[in-house]
Hints:
Blueprint: E1 5-14, E2 17-27, E3 32-36, H1 43-49, E4 60-68, E5 71-72, H2 80-86, E6 87-90, H3 102-106, H4 108-112, H5 118-131, H6 135-138, H7 151-164, E7 169-173, H8 181-194, E8 199-203, H9 207-213, E9 216-221, E10 230-236, H10 237-242, H11 247-253
Parallel strand pairs: 3-8, 3-9, 6-7, 7-8
Antiparallel strand pairs: 1-2, 1-4, 4-5, 9-10
Helix pairs in contact: 5-7, 7-8
Amino acid sequence: xxxxxxxxxxxxxxxxxxxxxxxxxxxxxxxxxxxxxxxxxxxxxxxxxxxxxxxxxxxxxxxxxxxxxxxxxxxxxxxxxxxxxxxxxxxxxxxxxxxxxxxxxxxxxxxxxxxxxxxxxxxxxxxxxxxxxxxxxxxxxxxxxxxxxxxxxxxxxxxxxxxxxxxxxxxxxxxxxxxxxxxxxxxxxxxxxxxxxxxxxxxxxxxxxxxxxxxxxxxxxxxxxxxxxxxxxxxxxxxxxxxxxxxxxxxxxxxxxx
Length: 258
């Protein structure tokens, strides 16, 4: 079930380095929110705090609150594994397990959770591949290695793997940056379908992509050298691209910097 994501006064650090400062935002269920901004402004860092993925880097820490339907995912006793089960992640480059079969790639997460029933695994594999708009292309070669698929197919396979465990939120960190235009279009169309069931947050450098796929867009920026990234504004995508409140957003959208 799609859940609301809320951040309240979030600061993110890597050791002594203050990466992002004072982020407060809300993402509604069954919607797509895009994060845009220049390189190094912290948009991917913010994305990764939503499922505690940034914690794999030593010294990383968060101040403030990050909530799923009101529950602080950094609260005492909260298991990061449970958070990552509820909040799936799709990375910039497709990362299927290359020698593992297409079917086993999809159900890898379920197997880690202890599911062994073959009928159940086959059912989830088909449902997830259909959900990722990949079933018709691979149904006759499910036992072939996932690494044998094209780049666009591999990315959709990774999306199928992410949704197989039925998360509440789906994060995508530049999911199309390594893909050709036809594969990019397929992923964008898929995002539009997936938002019926998930809360989706996507980071993209492609402003046209943000305009096409998202309901709301957040612009992140660096206010100056050696200063942490900040969320400048978050609003309906149409408004961000046609009539932003902040001059910095307008300058970035129009290509005057970044």
